[in-house]
């Protein structure tokens, strides 16, 4: 490791030596045009013209000479120096926006920031890709001196990225570093070392990150989108230069796209697992169209550990895996066995989403921010101070069976065993027409435990008390759904939804079970009587039954969420 760092440092020092500008060593313009593929936000661009920038939930004034402001948060600083915001200025399409982009880039070139993050290969990769992707927008009509200065810097940045490879962190952003190196290689093909270095590392990086079923190893729909976007940009760059796309990239694009389609609700946006936000349905569709021509949706995702069950116009998504493995877990959530449920374009049951600000990010990673069971105020996974996972379920079991359009899921994990001596089993049933979702939640342990079952609701869902105890009515647009549960106290509490740019108030249905609470009379050893009103909670089907180990305490919540079609049906 020490030798590697010394060699890397030597290469970095050589990479950043001054170039012989004006003596034929630096190209006057990119040989191949690279076009940024993604839409910007004109409103954000208008803020930039006024001197204000928003990145990752933070807003600061920005202008010439302000690149190293010590008040910048790391997430804001990364977004600032990535220059992805150039597409927001481009979206305005005005001369004022073009001149503002040129002025900011030129100030950066004349006064290069000294913060270490600027030299990070992932940030540098995003920056050079942004500069080259928007070259026609802000640089093509500029002076010869500006363009020469820009091209000289691009060469330095390319050498810097090459010197820092392979990246120490192998998350999706390492693809950004390789994308930046490829961008410089395409723009300056006479420097053949850039392309050869890209080809040297890309296969191993893709193999390391993309699982056999097409899931990104970080197990986040949003990361899936980001990684797929990076690979799609690589394809476009290769096409611009008429180079053959590496087989690993082509295969990854074909495998990842069905997974991303599978993790979209009816509104076209992303499900909220492992820190994801909804993101723009337009952007998601654009990424998919750039990645593949097919519209296949993944049904089985065993390596990624997710289950997708669709019946009628209803969609059930379940996180049926442990958090991402060590090294890829800094954004993982304690949401094992959590679910999301939607009907047509209407989201009903959701997870709380991901946080941009540190305090929100930490809170939303806990099990309580997910639609699943929380035992004694604990989470199914714990986290170190640096954000990595300290403890995770050792065993997660899943069985998914279908018959005549209906789905049965039998799931379990032992994430609560080290802390509370308990295991959690969840059985779910989705009817063939999609109008009925039923569940059975079982906590089995060495003693009676307090636990809660949470169903976080989308902010568009209006909650009304039901006509009977243990029931709640949900009004979502033109849809009406009725919820009922037995085995615990049903209450409606405040929640928060962070699927967009900022958290907004929402509600949640909570079913609470107190320790040593009265149990329903047993019909047999270890088998509680089925509560009145939910006899049909899980219809008989091909899924395995839950068995109780001798001498263990077992508590069960049974619930149903059913659509009210009204007297006339639909």
Automatic annotation (TrEMBL):
An example Gene Ontology molecular-function term? lyase activity
Upper lineage is:
Bacteria, Pseudomonadati, Pseudomonadota, Alphaproteobacteria, Acetobacterales
Annotated GO CC locations: periplasmic space
Report the subcellular localization: Periplasm
Residue ranges of the region described as Disordered: 518-551
Q: Which PANTHER family match?
A: HEPARIN-SULFATE LYASE (PTHR39210)
Q: Which UniProt keywords apply?
A: Lyase, Periplasm, Signal
Q: Which domain of life is it from?
A: Bacteria
Under the heading InterPro entries, the entry gives: Chondroitin_lyas (IPR008929), Hepar_II_III_C (IPR012480)
- Primary location: periplasm
Residue span, Heparinase II/III-like C-terminal domain: 298-515
Q: Which Pfam families match?
A: Hepar_II_III_C (PF07940)
Identify this protein by name: Heparinase II/III family protein
């Amino acid at each position: 490791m020490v030798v590697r760092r010394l060699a890397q440092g030597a290469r970095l020092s050589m990479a950043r030596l001054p170039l012989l500008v004006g003596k034929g060593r630096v190209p006057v313009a990119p040989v191949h045009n690279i076009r940024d593929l993604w839409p910007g936000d004109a409103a954000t661009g208008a803020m930039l013209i006024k001197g204000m920038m928003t990145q990752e939930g933070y807003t600061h004034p920005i202008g010439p000479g302000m690149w190293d402001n010590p008040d910048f948060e790391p997430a804001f600083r990364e977004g600032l120096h990535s220059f992805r915001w150039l597409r927001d200025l481009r979206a305005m399409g005005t001369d004022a926006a073009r001149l503002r982009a040129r002025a900011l880039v030129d100030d950066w070139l004349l006064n290069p920031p000294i913060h270490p993050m600027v030299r990070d290969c992932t940030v540098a990769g995003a920056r050079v890709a942004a500069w080259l992707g928007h070259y026609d927008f802000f640089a093509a009509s500029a002076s010869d001196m500006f363009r020469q200065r820009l091209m000289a810097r691009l060469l330095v940045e390319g050498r810097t990225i090459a010197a820092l490879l392979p990246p120490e962190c192998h998350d999706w952003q390492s693809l950004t570093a390789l994308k930046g190196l490829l961008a410089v290689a395409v723009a300056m093909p006479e420097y053949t070392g850039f392309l050869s270095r890209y080809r040297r590392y890309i296969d191993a990086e893709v193999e390391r990150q993309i699982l056999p079923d097409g899931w990104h190893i970080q197990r986040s729909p949003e990361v899936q989108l980001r990684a797929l976007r990076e690979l799609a940009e690589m394809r476009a760059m290769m096409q611009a230069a008429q180079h053959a796309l590496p087989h690993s990239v082509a295969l990854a694009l074909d495998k990842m796209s069905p997974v991303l389609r599978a993790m979209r609700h009816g509104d076209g946006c992303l499900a909220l697992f492992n820190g994801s936000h909804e993101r723009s349905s337009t952007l998601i569709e654009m990424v998919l169209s750039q990645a593949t021509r097919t519209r296949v949706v993944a049904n089985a995702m065993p390596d990624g550990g997710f289950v997708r069950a669709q019946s009628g116009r209803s969609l059930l998504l379940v996180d049926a895996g442990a958090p991402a493995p060590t090294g890829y877990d800094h954004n993982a959530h304690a949401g094992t066995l959590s679910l999301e449920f939607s009907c047509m374009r209407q989201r009903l049951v959701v997870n709380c989403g991901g946080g941009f600000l540190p305090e929100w990010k930490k809170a939303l990673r806990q099990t309580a921010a997910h639609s699943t069971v929380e035992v004694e105020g604990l989470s199914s996974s714990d986290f170190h101070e640096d954000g990595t996972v300290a403890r995770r379920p050792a065993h997660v079991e899943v069985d998914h069976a279908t018959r005549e359009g209906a789905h049965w899921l039998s799931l379990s994990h032992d994430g609560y065993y080290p802390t509370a001596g308990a295991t959690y089993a969840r059985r779910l049933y989705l009817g063939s027409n999609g109008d009925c979702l039923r569940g059975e939640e079982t906590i089995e342990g060495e003693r009676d435990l307090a636990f809660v079952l949470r169903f976080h609701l989308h902010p568009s869902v209006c909650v009304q008390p039901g006509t009977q105890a243990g029931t709640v009515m949900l009004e979502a647009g033109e849809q009406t759904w009725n919820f009922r549960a037995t085995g615990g106290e049903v209450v409606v509490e405040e929640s928060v939804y962070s699927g967009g740019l900022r958290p907004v108030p929402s509600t949640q249905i909570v079913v609470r079970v107190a320790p040593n609470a009265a149990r329903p009379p047993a019909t047999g050893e270890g088998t509680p009587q089925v509560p009145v009103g939910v006899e049909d909670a899980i219809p008989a089907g091909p899924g395995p039954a839950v068995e109780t180990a001798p001498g263990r305490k077992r508590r069960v919540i049974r619930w149903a969420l059913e659509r009210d079609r009204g007297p006339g049906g639909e």
